[in-house]
Amino acid sequence: MTRPDPSPLAFVPFVSVANMMRLVNATGTESFISELAGYIEEDFRRWPDFDKTPRLASHSRDGVIELMPTADAENYGFKYVNGHPKNTREGYQTVTAFGVLASVATGYPILLSEMTVLTALRTAATSALVGRYLAPKGAQVMAMIGNGAQCEFQALAFRALCGIDRLRLYDTDPAATQKARRNLAARGFTVVICKSAQEAVEGAEIITTCTADKQYATILTDNMVGSGQHINAIGGDCPGKTELHPDILRRAEIFVEYPEQTRIEGEIQQLAPDHPVTELWRVIRGEAPGRSSAEQITLFDSVGFAIEDFSALRYIHAKIGGTDFCEPLDMLADPDDPRDLFGMLERAR
Ligand SMILES: NC(=O)c1ccc[n+]([C@@H]2O[C@H](COP(=O)([O-])OP(=O)(O)OC[C@H]3O[C@@H](n4cnc5c(N)ncnc54)[C@H](O)[C@@H]3O)[C@@H](O)[C@H]2O)c1
Predict the structure, then answer these.
(1) Class of the CATH domain delimited by 8-117+307-347
(2) Which pLDDT tens digit goes with each residue over 245-269?
(3) 213 lines ligand 1 (CB under 6 A)
(4) Sorted alphabetically, which Pfam families does this protein's record hold (predicted)?
């Protein structure tokens, strides 16, 4: 007996790590980040259209594993992501991820993608997009504290979207800084290596903190931050895991993705639950001010929200159609007679 062919919907386009790297390199990293930022900006503008919930986090002694779902009328997306600061000591990534985009109409997945590389790109795209609204005009110098996996992506995004071309690097591990210096000098940045976080922030208009430590760390103290600086704080993203002294938060105008999640995970977990914050989607829609004076200290208290991953998956889905940057994955059982799942199994014997 001949077996019926599986339906086309049974095969889900899969973007492997190898194909993601080919796609990013074929597009150009900065162009990729700029295009992705366009998708994120578009989705922030239609924020009320999305189902939103703080991510579901499963905490353990050494790390966290999270599911990040969201949906609009057309698509449902989720990302699986972990955060294990101790991993690098054992030769593993701190953060790994993969994600799915599905059709709301059928419930069938339409994309499965690696998201470790994509998360670094989307986090950087979001940071720099926000930087466009909050960083001081004409900023050229960025301090980068924490020179691990996210570091170079952040730098490229801030050059592509905000014109940053001078970097001041600091990491407690000099090997991480040397790695970042090599990668970034090869990309044409002017790089200064600093001996402390204090030294790194001197003369910087933007301060990016992207350290990984499973505790209330104090990467920046109040005296280190001067008027007019923009802080892009991405490393404090879990309960009990922060980077900034609370006094900085009291002086800064604070901008967040989704307050319900950021109050649990972000720097503002150190403040009263009703401390005023501005939602970025309102700034992007022109409904709330971004930076309103040259002296203001602005803070993007980034934790990473599901809509950014949804935008990233939507962008990848649009880019891979009709290309060989994906391969069909035999992932969904889809018998010709939808009620004969068992018969399909029998015919496969
Ligand atoms: N907000 C978001 O959307 C988002 C997205 C991805 C990652 N993250 C977070 O960003 C952080 C960095 O991620 P990564 O993948 O680059 O991690 P990583 O482990 O590759 O790099 C972190 C670096 O921070 C350095 N570091 C630790 N403590 C430090 C300190 N006190 N001062 C200076 N440097 C210090 C480490 O030596 C390491 O080089 C993590 O905390 C991660 O959870 C946030």
Answers:
(1) alpha beta
(2) 999 999 999 999 999 999 999 999 9
(3) yes
(4) OCD_Mu_crystall
The rounded Å distance from CA 137 to ligand 1 centre is 27
pTM score: 0.97
- Rounded to 5, what percent of the chain is helix, strand, coil? 40, 25, 35
Q: Which residues belong to CATH 3.30.1780.10 in the chain?
A: 8-117+307-347
Out of 3.40.50.720, 3.30.40.10, 3.30.70.2210, 3.50.50.60, the CATH code matching 133-304 is: 3.40.50.720
Could you give the percent of the chain with pLDDT greater than 70? 98
Domain with CATH 3.40.50.720 in the chain: 133-304
Strand extents, DSSP E, the chain = 11-15, 56-59, 64-71, 75-83, 97-103, 109-114, 141-145, 166-170, 190-193, 206-209, 216-220, 230-233, 242-244, 253-256, 278-279, 298-301, 327-330
Best residue for ligand 1 mutational test, from 211, 216, 231, 232 (most atoms within 8 Å of Cβ): 211
What's the CA-to-centroid distance between 96 and ligand 1, angstroms? 13
Instruction: Describe the strand order of the beta sheet including 206-209 as a list of residue ranges.
Output: 190-193, 166-170, 141-145, 206-209, 230-233, 298-301, 253-256, 278-279
198 lines ligand 1 (CB under 6 A): no
Q: Is 131 a pocket residue for ligand 1 (Cβ < 6 Å)?
A: no
Residue 119 Cβ contacting ligand 1 at under 6 Å: yes
What do you get for the CA distance between the two ends of the chain, in Å? 11
Q: What does the pLDDT average to over 344-349?
A: 94
Pairing outcome for strands 75-83 and 64-71: antiparallel
* 310-334 average pLDDT score: 96
pLDDT, the chain, mean:
96
